[in-house]
Amino acid sequence: MPSTPLHADQEIRTLKERIAALGPWFHNMRLCGVQTAPDHFLGDYPQIKYDRFSESLPHDLTGKTVLDIGCNGGFYSLEMKRRGADRVLGIDTDEHYLAQARFAARVSGMDIEFRRMSVWQVGSLHETFDLVIFMGVLYHLRHPLLALDLIHEHVARDLLLFQSMQRGSREIAHVDPDYDFHAEIHFDDPGYPKMHFVEHRYSHDETNWWVPNRACVEAMLRSSGFAIESQPENEVYICRWHSIEVPPDGPHCVYPANGRSAS
Predict the structure, then answer these.
(1) Going along 59-193, which residue ranges are E strands?
(2) Under a CB-based contact definition with an 8 Å cutoff, are residues 91 and 43 in contact?
(3) What is the DSSP letter of 161?
(4) CA dihedral sign, ordered 207, 254, 116, 128
(5) I want to staple 52 with a disulfide (CB 3.0 to 4.6 A). Which of 85, 152, 233, 254 is the partner?
C-alpha cells in the first residue's frame, strides 16, 4: 500500500535525521532524493567528477565482479551495482565511512558487501575481480608503489580504474630505459617522474604522504603491470592488467601470491 503524503513526509524526515546522524559525509549521494553532503566544499562531489569519465567505463557489468578499494561512503560501489555488477565489494579502514556505505546501499536496495580492510590486506581475499577501483587512495599511503604491486599480484585480473591527486608539471619527459652512472640525467626536468613527499600535512590532512606529478603516476602504473588505455579526466586512468616479467631478484611485490605466477 503506497504511503500517504503524511507518511511520506515522516519517512523523509526520518531519513534526513539518519543521514545527519551518520555525518559528516565526504560523498554527496542522493538517497531517496535526499543529499548526504549538499554543502560539500568541492560542490556535488563525487558526481561532478564521475560525470567526466563515466562514459569510459563499461555500461553493462552484468556478471562482473568489482572491488572498490577505499570505498568511503560507497558512491562508486553503488554506481557499479547500478550497471549490473554481479558482486561488488567495498573496503575501507574507516568504520565511519563503512557505516555510511552500508546505510546508503540498504536505503538504495542494493546488495553490496562492505568490509573493514586495508589495501595491504587484499591478498587475504583470495579472489580476483573484473574491475578494481583505486581512486583517491594512493597519496594517502606511506608505501604507494607497494599498494599497486599488491593490487596487481592479488586482486586485479582485467580493468583498473585509478585516480590520484597530482601536483607539478603535466609534461611527460623522455626517459631512456637505462643510464650510465656518470651520464647526465635531467632529474630536475619538470616532466621527469617525481613524487613529492609530505612530512607533516598537506591541505590540513596528516594522511597526505606523497603527491606525484603526471609522469610519475603513469610510470608507476606501467611499472606495476597496468597498461594505460585511456585518460578520460586529468587525474583518472582506465588501465588493463597484464602479466609482468619477474626480475632476476624475484617478484616486484614484497608479498607475492601463493600459487600465482606473475610471468
Answers:
(1) 65-69, 87-92, 113-116, 129-135, 156-163
(2) no
(3) E
(4) positive
(5) 233
Range of the domain at 90: 43-241
**What is the count of structural domains for the chain?**
1
Contact 45, 39 (CB under 8 A): no
156 with 257: CB under 8 angstroms?
no
CATH number at residue 79: 3.40.50.150
Is 133 within a domain? yes
* In-domain check, residue 232: yes
- Which residues, 6+ apart, have CB-to-CB distance to 195 below 8 Å? 144, 210, 211, 212, 216
Residue pLDDT tens, the chain, 263 long:
455 554 678 899 999 999 999 999 999 999 999 999 999 999 999 999 999 999 999 999 999 999 999 999 999 999 999 999 999 999 999 999 999 999 999 999 999 999 999 999 999 999 999 999 999 999 999 999 999 999 999 999 999 999 999 999 999 999 988 899 988 888 999 999 999 999 999 999 999 999 999 999 999 999 999 999 999 999 999 999 999 887 777 666 655 554 444 43
Residue from 163, 166, 147 nearest 155 by CA: 147
Tell me, yes or no, whether 234 lies in a domain.
yes
Is residue 219 domain-resident? yes
Residue the block writes with cell 609522469: 215
